[in-house]
Each structure stands twice: as structure tokens, then as C-alpha cells.
Amino acid sequence: MAKGDKFYFENFAASAALSKKAAVYLVECLEGYNPDNIETMLQKMHEIEHTADIKKHEMNDALAKAFVTPVDREDLDMLSHNLDHVTDSIEEIIQKFYIYNIRTVEPAVIEFAKKLVKSCELLCTLMEEFENFKRSKKIHELIVELNDNEEECDKLYLSSMRELTKNASDVLTVISWREIFECFEASADACEHVSDCVGTVIMKNT
Predict the structure, then answer these.
(1) DSSP string for 121-154
(2) 3 state DSSP class of 4
(3) Given pLDDT bands bounded at 50, 70 and 90, which one contains residue 2?
(4) Domain residue spans in the chain?
(5) Rounded CA separation 62/77 (Å)
(6) What value does the mean pLDDT take over residues 64-74?
(7) Do residues 115 and 188 lie in contact, with contact meaning Cβ atoms separated by under 8 Å?
(8) How far apart are CA 127 and CA 122, in angstroms?
(9) Contact call for residues 46 and 18 (beta carbons, < 8 A)
(10) Statement: residue 3 has pLDDT above 70
(11) Which of these, 43, 78, 45, lies nearest to 59 by C-alpha position?
């Protein structure tokens, strides 16, 4: 692989690491949740998201200038976009807590956040392996594991929504938590979309 090609894979690895950082910070926020500190949470999470945006812009600039890329330019762009979306979607969770003035945190929310950390950890490992995708013996296993974790998130989403509609005392509570759980589900889906994208690149290039 050409020396210049390492930039793309290093950028992907750095982007995945930022997604993991956002997910870990989300767990930290929720385990010690204090609604009076929500603006600080927003600011810190946005700093992570902004750094992820910079990585995406760096990728865009590199692709615009590149004559030859290690795989199709469109695939690199798609993967960069999907990785950035993971961090964006995690930030949106904290934004919903702010918008709806959430005062307390349900245990299921912390469980969901920890599952997002697991997905992001798998993404980090996947991106570390991606540079050697033609020889790696781990990538397929990682893709399957990410898909399995997303299915666990689906089940948690369904059970959480059912409990919400059974036990909520007012419409605003239902609406608020429904949107929060939908954001969690979207974050899990975003992680899976990255793994699907990697699978597509491998299929096209091996």
C-alpha cells in the first residue's frame, strides 16, 4: 500500500476513537446525571463532535486533491460520512436531555449507553483492521459482532418503549422519552451502517 494511503486509514481510526470518546462521556454523564450540569455536558460533548467534524473535513480535502485512492473515492467518502454520523447521533442524545429538561435517568438509558460504548469499541477495532482488509482474519467477525450488538439495542429499544407507554403518567413524558430512545436506536444503527459500509468495500475490492 502506498505511503500516502495511510492517511485515509489513520483518519478513520481517529474518527472511530472520537465516537468511542463521545459514547464513554455519555455514560459518564448519565451515571452521575445532574440536570443542573446539562449545559456543561452539552459543551463538552460538542467539543468532541467538533473534533470529529474536523476529521471529516480533512478527509474531504484529501479526497478532493487525491489523484489515486486505495479504494473508490466514493466509498472512502461514504465511510467518512457514516463515521461522523455516529458521533453526531451520540451528541443528539444529550441535546434531547437538554431540550426536554430531563430531571432523572432511567436504568435502561444507562444500559443503552453502555451498549453504544461496546459498539464504538468494536468500531475502533474494525478501523484498526481496515487498512489490512485484504488479509485480515478479524474483520468479518467484527462486522458480525457489531450487527449482533445492534440487534441487542433493538430489543432494548422495544422493551424500553413498551415500559414507557405502560407506565408513563402524561403525554409529554411519553414524547420526551420516545425521542430519546429513538436517538439511542439511531446511534446504534449508525454504528451498524459503518460496519455495513466496510463490508461493501471489502466485497468490491477482494
Answers:
(1) HHHHHHHHHHTTTTT-SSHHHHHHHHHHHHHHHH
(2) helix
(3) low
(4) 3-205
(5) 10
(6) 92
(7) yes
(8) 9
(9) no
(10) no
(11) 78
User: What is the rounded distance in angstroms from the CA atom of residue 38 to the CA atom of residue 93?
Assistant: 12
Q: Is 66 left (phi over 0), alpha (psi -120 to 50) or beta?
A: beta
Amino acid at 202: I
Which among 56, 77, 75 has a CA at the least distance from the CA of 199?
75
The C-alpha cell at 49 is 463532535
Find the mean pLDDT for residues 43-50: 98
Q: Which three cell numbers stand for residue 74?
A: 466514493
pLDDT of 36 reads 97
pTM over the 0.90 mark: yes
Provide CB contacts within 8 A for 67, sequence distance 6+: none
Q: Classify the phi-psi angles of 101: left when phi > 0, otherwise alpha if psi is within -120 to 50, otherwise beta.
A: left
User: Does the domain made of 3-205 have the CATH classification 1.20.58.220?
Assistant: yes
* Mean pLDDT on 106-117: 95
pLDDT at 4: 66
| Nearest CA-CA partner of 142 in 79, 94, 85, 198 | 198
Distance separating alpha carbons of residues 20 and 112, to the nearest angstrom: 14
DSSP assignment string, 37-77: GHHHHHHHHHHHHHHHHHHHHHHHHHHHH-SS-SS-HHHHH
- Nearest CA to 105 out of 179, 177, 24, 158 is that of 177
